[in-house]
């Protein structure tokens, strides 16, 4: 009898494992999209200045969300002269769940050291992360990695 009960419990655990694994996969941080910010000529990336950029959050299968970004300062002076060129910065958006409601990225982000570059963490309750995208040119990636803080306002 004990052997039969033990076998039944083992079968139940094996059958339930795929469901538990699926739940575990959905609760960890996931990349939900890409935030791209652009600034026009004369947007002056000077240490200590405020630079405003227009941003778009791209999430597969959803309408784009628009944000306005203000870069308050740089973490360090990294010796890049932007001049009069248009600049585009891009981040992978990491969230605690695989879905975002419109405007969810709004908030203040600050630099947090990471093994693969400089992440910005913040947003509502500080649970969002912006990781510099590898899908941008070297200069843009270096700028994105060196930002000290970023303020995102929903423009939807």
Query: In percent terms, what proportion of residues is strand?
Result: 35-45%
What does the average pLDDT come to? 74
Helical segment tally?
2
Question: Quick one: overall form?
Answer: globular
Low-confidence stretches: 4-25, 41-47
Rg, alpha carbons: 21 Å
Structural class: alpha+beta
Please, how many domains? 1
Structure description:
There is one protein chain. This protein is α+β, with helices and mostly antiparallel strands. It has one domain (28-154). 22% of the residues lie in helices and 41% in strands. It has 2 helices and 8 strands. The chain has helices at residues 2-27, 138-146, and strands at 30-39, 51-58, 65-74, 87-95, 107-114, 117-122, 128-132, 147-154. Strands 1-2-3-8-5-6-7-4 form an 8-stranded antiparallel barrel. A hairpin with a 6-residue loop joins strand 2 (51-58) and strand 3 (65-74). The model is unreliable at 4-25 and 41-47 (pLDDT under 50).
């Amino acid at each position: 009898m004990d052997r039969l009960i033990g076998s039944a419990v083992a079968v139940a655990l094996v059958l339930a494992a795929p469901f538990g694994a699926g739940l575990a996969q959905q609760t960890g941080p996931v990349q939900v999209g890409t935030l791209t910010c652009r600034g026009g000529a004369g947007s002056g990336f000077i240490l200590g200045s405020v630079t405003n950029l227009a941003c778009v959050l791209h999430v597969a299968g959803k309408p784009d969300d628009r944000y306005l970004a203000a870069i308050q300062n740089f973490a360090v002076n990294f010796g890049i002269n932007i001049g009069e060129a248009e600049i585009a910065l891009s981040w992978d958006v990491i969230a605690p769940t695989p879905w975002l409601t419109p405007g969810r990225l709004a908030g203040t982000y600050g630099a947090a050291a990471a093994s693969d570059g400089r992440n910005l963490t913040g947003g509502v309750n500080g649970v969002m992360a912006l990781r510099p995208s590898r899908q941008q040119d070297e200069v843009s990636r270096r700028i994105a990695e060196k930002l000290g803080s970023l303020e995102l306002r929903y423009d939807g």
